[in-house]
Design a protein that fits this description.
This protein has helices at residues 6-9, 23-33, 52-57, 83-91, 95-98, 112-122, 142-157, and strands spanning 37-42, 45-51, 66-70, 73-77, 106-107, 126-130, 136-141. With 158 residues, the protein is of the alpha+beta class. The protein has a single domain (6-157), classed as CBS-domain (Roll), CATH 3.10.580. A three-stranded mixed sheet has the order 5-6-7. The longest helix is centred in the last third of the chain and has 16 residues, at 142-157.
Length: 158
């Protein structure tokens, strides 16, 4: 397979949001962009990312930890999820309260293989793309990778 850089794959029309943008605005931007996530930018720096998962989590039931009595004490059985974090997301009114930080980014010089590896290893579906000066220059999603891989695969079989 040919070496493809993220510069060739990424979208350059990045729909960034501000930390103080409302959840309603963030939802609209996500929906309109068709991306699974949008970067939160403050003073030209990517400070977080809000994904479709963050928006959907707001609507999910919160699972409170079970309290188990044992002798004269009570123990909280942890289900593995952070209740404080879940509550923060459900009650969020701004991008700052909803966003995931720190953000996993990728350089614009990265290859398709490096981008795919980061996405799989870190369990993310979208990556902001930064240049050498850490300026936001694009965004790449799993869908973008699939589109390029499909093209490369069909080129090889032709």
């Amino acid at each position: 397979m040919a070496t493809v850089s993220v510069r060739e794959i990424m979208r350059t029309d990045v729909p960034a949001i501000a930390p103080d943008d409302s959840v309603a605005r963030v939802s609209r931007v996500l929906s309109d962009s068709g991306l699974p996530g949008v970067p939160v930018v403050e003073d030209g720096v990517v400070v977080g990312i809000v994904t479709d998962k963050d928006i959907i989590q707001r609507e999910a039931d919160i699972s409170s930890p079970a309290v188990v009595p044992f002798l004269d004490a009570f123990f909280v059985v942890d289900a593995g999820r952070d209740l404080d974090e879940e509550l923060q997301r459900v009650l969020a009114t701004s991008a700052r309260e909803l966003m995931t930080e720190p953000v996993i980014n990728i350089r614009d010089s990265a290859t398709l293989e490096e981008t795919a590896t980061v996405m799989l290893e870190r369990g993310v579906s979208v990556l902001p793309v930064l240049d050498q000066e850490n300026h936001l220059v694009g965004i790449v999603s799993r869908h973008d990778l699939v589109r390029v891989i499909a093209r490369l695969e069909s080129d090889e079989t032709a």
